[in-house]
Write a structure and sequence with these properties.
CATH superfamily of the largest domain: DNA ligase/mRNA capping enzyme
Bound molecules: 2-(butylsulfanyl)adenosine
CATH topology of the largest domain: D-amino Acid Aminotransferase, Chain A, domain 1
Oligomer: single chain
Distance between the termini: 52 Å
CATH architecture of the largest domain: 2-Layer Sandwich
Largest sheet: 6 strands, antiparallel
Radius of gyration: 33 Å
Length: 655
């Protein structure tokens, strides 16, 4: 993205974020999930880091969202209630530490807390007696919700001390209570709440304390102003004063302990009775924390290290239709790579034509993508606010993208179908061939997985294999014999390929391994092959009119040249002329297993030296290479009086 594009995108992101934050904070309404909103904020933050000159004072990254509701009395906070920047990866955390290490020389230790998904509150005590309770509001002025919060049982009305203190914490709702309230809402025919935080906010920011009392809210205190030497001590003091603190919080001596703590809770969060969306990491020493100061709305000395988002924004780069095993046509969105649930994905299903209409999705749109469990992600919503007018409508094709047959949509079905029963088979065979031993040799990518990848619309041509990301194929993990990670690394490990293999892998009719090798040796690169005329081709060893015709025909189809074009972007095609011609013209047959090399590499060596390998013995055979437990071929060789070479001798020949 160049600077001008970044400027446009930043503008749209700010408008969209502001719109949703206004709905959320001021109107208590929610149109997109917290995670989706977080992902938009993250993209804005990243763009602003890349182009700091585009940061403006009114950017949502610089300002605390939310205005106090008019109905409430206002309370001025004795000190500003700040907010936190988000980190989503260990790398983000390391960057944060680097930034603060530039500013302070003291050793850094951290206090880590669970980040509860609730509402921030401030409690003011005078002589140990609770005076006022407020929400954050705009950070300087909050809403007076004293009466409502007094109904929250674990907030002490009187402390075990007669100090004057300002305490901050979070009010939240446990998961059980959340479900109970939603069941109640449902029974009353009222809309359900999206998440526990919404109920907590809704219960506190309303005018009738009886409603608050009817919902079992809980609280955790996490800060007490101007007390203690370090953050851990603050928690101790809070506990002694009678506040409820979170017993899972932990002192961590360095970032590696912080990472362990975050990883632990990423796995165990489901078991907690309440929702958390990450951890809060705070520079433990109070003096160092203060010295680090505040930038904009956030203290430099602490950060929210969030769990991976299960929803994210993404840009639809293309919509491609996919033919499944039953001929069903599925539109699939090709996305700009985004991270969901901790892995990167590039594909989302659009299910069918009606779904595209329902979502109103266009190519180029910014959308929210999500994954529910182990299924291929789908598109939840189009962010119409993000449109630039450059988006293009998607039109369902009338012909099959694989075999060109006219598509049909049987009455009352939602799916279009390719009526050609051989279509899927044709498509998958070309991919089986592409990954096979003598072609790209992608191990672990068997027919079962390929069928599934095709069915799910994750690939359509061999070129798609190289763009797959781990997260795309996680839905196949249970089904595949290899893990998603292994499959991806197996694919990625084959990004350098000999020209002859490359030519063979294309699956051009009549072009076997030997022909591919002759073509590679003569033409030297793929461009020359693509350009070659029938006459040029017929000058290549052993190529006659039939083979040359198939090659020219294959390259005349745009569909095919497009695949080659895309493959060239992902893989490096190399060509080394044969090292020696020592075995030129000699025909070999292999039988039995060799000790020191596989059959494939034995074959490769023979071909490299100009020889040929045949599957069966005839009077033309020059050598039969016999390994352990040779088959019936050995007997036949003897009968035909063909020279038999054993492993040792063979190794000498190919040296
Ligand atoms: S410390 C400068 N500790 O997360 C704010 N916050 O984005 C320092 N939150 O508004 C807050 N659990 O409402 C802190 N253990 C915890 C928290 C926590 C939840 C919320 C809080 C704050 C937001 C930060």
């Amino acid at each position: 993205m160049d600077k001008e594009e970044a400027r446009q995108r930043i503008k749209k992101l700010r408008e969209t974020i502001n719109h949703h934050r206004y709905l959320y904070h001021v109107q208590d309404k929610q149109e997109i999930s917290d995670e989706a909103l977080d992902s938009l904020k993250k993209e804005l933050w990243d763009l602003e880091q890349e182009y700091p000159e585009l940061i403006t004072v009114d950017s949502p990254t610089q300002r605390i969202g939310g205005k106090p509701l008019k109905q409430f009395k206002k309370i001025k906070h004795p000190e500003r209630m700040l907010s936190l920047n988000d980190a989503f990866s260990e790398e983000d955390m390391e960057d944060w530490e680097k930034r603060i290490k530039k500013l302070v020389s003291e050793p850094l230790n951290y206090y880590c807390e669970l980040k509860l998904d609730g509402l921030a509150i401030e409690l003011i005590y005078s002589n140990g007696v609770l005076q006022t309770c407020s929400t954050r509001g705009d950070g300087s002025i909050g809403e007076d919700v004293t009466q409502n919060l007094k109904t929250v049982e674990d907030i002490p009305l009187k402390l075990n001390s007669d100090a004057d203190v300002v305490v901050r914490g979070e009010v939240f709702l446990n998961k059980k209570e959340f479900s109970r309230i939603n069941r109640e809402q449902e029974a009353k025919g009222l809309p359900k709440y999206a998440n526990p935080r919404n109920v907590a906010a809704g219960s506190i920011r309303q005018l009738d304390p009886k409603i608050t009392a009817g919902r079992k809210l809980e609280s955790n205190a996490y800060d007490i102003l101007n007390k203690g030497d370090d953050h851990q001590q603050k928690h101790q003091i809070l506990k002694e004063f009678g506040f409820r603190i979170n017993s899972n919080n932990k002192y961590c001596k360095d970032l590696s302990e912080v990472f362990k703590f975050q990883n632990y809770w990423k796995k165990k969060r489901e078991g907690l009775p309440y929702e958390i969306d990450g951890i809060v990491v705070i520079v433990n020493d109070n003096k160092t924390f203060e010295k680090l100061g505040v930038v904009g709305k956030t203290p430099r000395g602490s950060i929210a290290y969030k769990f991976p988002l299960r929803q994210s924004q993404a840009i639809i780069e293309d919509i491609v239709v996919q033919v499944g095993r039953t001929g069903a046509i599925t539109p699939v969105a090709h996305l700009s790579p985004v991270s969901i649930g901790g892995t990167t994905i590039t594909r989302a299903t659009l299910h069918n034509e009606d779904e595209i209409k329902r979502l109103g999705v266009k190519i180029g749109d910014t959308v929210i993508v999500g994954r529910a469990g182990d299924v291929i992600p789908d598109i939840i919503k189009v962010l119409v606010e993000m449109r630039t007018k450059k988006e293009k409508d998607f039109k369902m094709p009338s012909n099959c993208p694989v075999c060109s047959a006219r598509l049909v949509r049987p009455q009352r079905e939602v799916l279009w179908r390719c009526p050609n029963p051989k279509c899927f088979a044709r498509q998958r065979k070309s991919i089986y061939h592409f990954v096979s031993r003598a072609a790209f040799d992608i191990r672990g990518l068997g027919p079962k997985i390929i069928d599934k990848l095709l069915d799910e619309g994750l690939i359509q041509t061999p070129a798609d294999l190289f763009n797959l990301k781990e997260g795309d194929i996680i839905p196949l993990e249970r089904f595949a014999e290899k893990s998603a990670q292994n499959i991806i690394s197996s694919i990625q490990s084959r990004k350098e390929i000999e020209l002859s293999r490359f030519i063979y892998s294309l699956g051009i009719r009549n072009v076997g391994e030997e022909t591919a090798r002759n073509l590679a040796n003569k033409l030297q690169d793929i461009e020359n092959l693509q350009k070659a005329s029938k006459e040029d081709l017929e000058n290549v060893q052993d190529i006659g009119p039939i083979v040359s015709e198939s090659i020219v025909e294959w390259f005349s189809k745009e569909k095919n040249t497009h695949v080659v074009q895309r493959l060239k972007k992902s893989v490096r095609i190399i060509h080394q002329p044969p090292k020696s011609r020592k075995l030129e013209g000699k025909i070999f047959v292999l039988t039995g297993a060799l000790q020191s090399l596989t059959r494939e590499s034995a074959k490769g060596k023979i071909l490299d030296m100009g020889g040929e390998v045949s599957g069966s013995i005839s009077s033309n055979t020059d050598f039969v290479v016999a390994g352990d437990v040779p088959g019936t071929k050995l007997k036949k060789a003897r009968d035909l009086n063909i020279k038999i070479v054993f492993e040792k001798e063979f190794l000498k020949m190919i040296k």
